[in-house]
Design brief:
There is one protein chain. The protein is built from 6 helices and 60 strands. The chain is mostly beta strands and about 700 residues long. The protein has 3 domains: about 1-80, no CATH class; about 125-275, no CATH class; about 285-605, Pectate Lyase C-like. The strands form 7 sheets. It has a 29-stranded mixed sheet that branches. It has an 11-stranded parallel sheet with strand order 8-23-27-30-33-38-41-44-48-51-54. An 8-stranded mixed sheet has the order 10-22-13-14-20-21-12-11, with no helix packed on it. The relative contact order is 0.07.
């Protein structure tokens, strides 16, 4: 990629040509105009034209000329009434060898003027015939994915790819067995992927070789912050030369800088484009403001699973602070109507102090890690700990309320987005990740087909978030012990020594700047809970939600108000509450008895006025079975709510305290709404006869 640009230096306009590797110095506050080209000769010719324009005009007229000038790839213009520079990208495919780094830039709009595709790939050399139907070609260093004739090839792997297998698309305990490793002459350069021992995510390892007794030499496994070893069965290995045996597979030798492939039938090698992913990032914005990106498709970026190693405080996960688009120290930026397809890392990462970053009407499909991450820096947290089981003493922690710095995202928003097939490689991944962030919103967004959660909040710092009108399902597909919505609350009060449990509530607001609200949304999880508030999750209000399968779990937290939710074929799961939790659970419709575990400390302020739905129960009766479980529920009843299958609206009009929630969940932006899938609705047979009202 080659960049012609104009900067203002010593009050003079200067035109220059740079390569992508020089871009960090280019895209600074002195930048006045730029164009991007994949061809060096075209870029040089364009530079000559820019120099001619500058020298033949005054400074002001030169800029006016440039802003309206058309060039291969870009049309630029400047708003006469503002400082905004508008760049319209002409239709075409643009290759990014390196990310473009924007530093201290303000008022820039980059908008597609038709079908625009950005790829983080580089073209390969000429293919040569080897043996056994294998061909090879020179390839860039660290090539990470291969595409020929616009088809993605799979790295040669063991066991073979099996689309019917729900975990890893094929797994085998033999992936690390000595008898199998013996077949591979030199596995250096391979990658081993394995599930966590308890299925709490996964691990990835770079293979550095093997021992004389055929033990793999591994480096990695830092992707999970609860290291307990690999699952004995759920693992596979890729980029093994000896496993290159089927059409559509490839192997890459970084030592040789060479790609080996068995092409699909009828593929015309050397006549069809072949490209390898070599870069994970397209744009990095640092210290920028008022940036607008619209209508661009970002695709085919490299994977970053070996860079995922930084603990998220006491979260189960580690992260990589990067993505296809990265924001640092920026504000009032928007990404709208963009597509992110086949992204090997995180798609969008908002790192540290950022405010008012808005992602709207975007489509995320086939994302290696997480789709969108809002993650603050550790220096914003008082008394941080970094392992889930870590303890500290009351005498040793900072008891000052609130953040220690402002180095965290706040007032950011995701709205009207479609997010699907997330975590196809990294199993500690989610549609939207919130950690060390404040007052972020996820609105009218559909998230499904994820390896773990659809939405994850890693701790209570700093709360105040809003989840509204979302549709989350087909989640936790390859893992376990999680939810479509998942949170941890491992804040200063959790696992605190030197303070009785019944006094922990005094500290629960230290790390919270506001209550997190989950409302008007639909959740379905078939391998966990629909809504999972785990390990001290506190300061939540959860209402008007439709839970289709897994119910609602509440564990070890404070100040939670759960009301007016419907848990189809399930219930509320009370797990290990503190004394004096302050929790209120009321006016929910459940389909089964509660599911309590280790509730010796009681059930909070109030668990009452709930309804246990029982088909054809015409006369309302006291919910004695619920009362026996909690010692509360004096006003809870058993009755047929006449819930309507499909919409799940409450048909019993005598239940006047219930307001029906909206029946449209998820993305509403029409182009994405047409693409969005819907969850499988649970089997539920509504009453065939109307309830005799006189019997109530």
């Amino acid at each position: 990629m080659y960049i012609t640009y104009i900067s203002l230096q010593a009050d003079k306009l200067i035109a220059k040509l740079a390569s992508a590797s020089d871009n960090q110095a280019i895209f600074s506050k002195e930048l006045k105009y730029f164009e991007i080209f994949s061809d060096e000769e075209i870029a040089k010719a364009r530079l000559d034209k820019l120099v001619e324009i500058i020298f033949s005009n005054s400074t002001s007229s030169a800029l006016d000329c440039l802003y309206t000038c058309s060039a291969p790839g870009f049309i630029t213009q400047k708003n006469a009434y503002s400082d905004m520079l508008y760049i319209k990208v002409k239709p075409g495919i643009y290759y990014f060898d390196e990310p473009i780094m924007f530093n201290n830039i303000e008022h820039l709009s980059i908008k597609a003027d038709g079908n625009v595709i950005f790829r983080a790939t580089k073209l390969l050399g000429t293919w040569q015939s080897e043996s056994n139907g294998i061909y090879s070609a020179t390839a860039p260093a660290d090539s990470d994915a291969l595409y020929i004739a616009n088809k993605k090839y799979r790295m040669a792997r063991f066991p073979k790819f099996n689309p019917a297998s729900p975990i890893f698309n094929g797994f085998s305990r033999l992936a690390t067995a000595h008898e199998k490793v013996r077949e591979w002459e030199n596995p250096e350069g391979a990658y081993l992927h394995a599930m966590h021992l308890h299925n709490w995510g996964g691990y990835s390892y770079a293979v550095k070789g093997k021992t004389p007794d055929n033990e793999l030499i591994l480096e990695g496994g830092w992707q999970n912050n609860q290291p307990m070893g690999m699952h004995k069965d759920f693992k596979y290995i890729e980029n093994i030369k000896e496993e290159l045996t089927e059409a559509g597979e490839w192997y890459f030798s970084n030592k040789e800088k060479r790609a080996y492939v068995i092409p699909h039938p009828a593929t015309r090698l050397n006549q069809e484009p072949a490209e390898a992913a070599i870069n994970h990032c397209f744009f990095e914005f640092s210290g920028c403001a008022s940036i607008h990106i619209e209508g661009i498709q970002f695709e085919r970026s490299s994977r970053t699973f070996m860079e995922t190693k930084e603990p998220l405080l006491r979260s189960d996960w580690t992260i990589f602070r990067g993505g296809a688009i990265l924001f640092k120290q920026s504000s009032n930026c928007t990404i709208t109507k963009c597509n992110f397809f086949d992204i090997g890392s995180n798609a969008i990462f908002v790192d540290g102090k950022n405010n008012d970053i808005v992602i709207s009407k975007c489509h995320f499909n086939t994302i290696g890690a997480s789709a969108i991450c809002f993650v603050g820096r550790n220096d914003s947290v008082r008394s941080p700990l970094f392992k889930p089981a870590a303890h500290q003493h009351i005498n040793d922690i900072d008891l000052t309320p609130g953040p220690a710095s402002d180095n965290y995202p706040h007032h950011c928003r995701v709205e009207e987005c479609l997010i699907e097939k997330v975590g196809y490689l990294e199993k500690q991944a989610t549609g939207v990740e919130l950690s060390m962030a404040h007052a972020c919103a996820i609105i009218n967004t559909s998230i499904y087909d994820t390896s773990r959660a659809a939405i994850n909040i890693s701790e209570g710092t700093f709360g105040g978030h809003l989840i509204d009108g979302c549709d989350c399902f087909d989640t936790v597909k390859e893992t376990g012990d999680h939810g479509s919505f998942n949170s941890w609350g491992r804040d200063r009060f959790w696992h605190l020594d030197g303070l009785p449990d019944d006094e922990c509530g005094k500290l629960v607001q230290l790390d919270s700047l506001g209550k997190t609200i989950i409302r008007n949304s639909r959740f379905r999880c078939d391998r966990g809970w629909d809504i999972d508030l785990d390990d001290g999750s506190s300061n939540y209000e959860i209402y008007n939600n439709l839970c289709l399968n897994g119910g609602i779990k509440l564990r070890e937290g404070f100040n939670r108000y759960v009301h007016h939710n419907i848990t189809i074929n399930n219930s509320i799961h009370f797990h290990v509450w503190y004394k004096n939790s302050g929790d209120i659970v009321e006016k929910n419709i459940v389909f089964t008895e509660y599911q309590p575990i280790l509730m010796e400390n009681g059930f909070g302020n109030r668990v009452d006025y709930n309804i246990l739905n029982k088909r054809n129960c015409w006369r309302a009766q006291p919910a004695t079975m619920l009362a026996e479980q909690t010692g509360l529920d004096a006003h809870s009843i058993v009755v047929d709510c006449q819930i309507k299958s499909g919409t799940y609206r409450v048909g019993n009009k005598l239940l006047t305290d219930y307001k029906d929630f909206p029946t449209r969940f998820g993305v509403r932006y029409k182009p994405l709404r047409k693409l969005a899938k819907q969850p499988i609705l649970p089997e539920y047979e509504a009453p065939t006869l109307p309830i005799p009202l006189t019997h109530l």
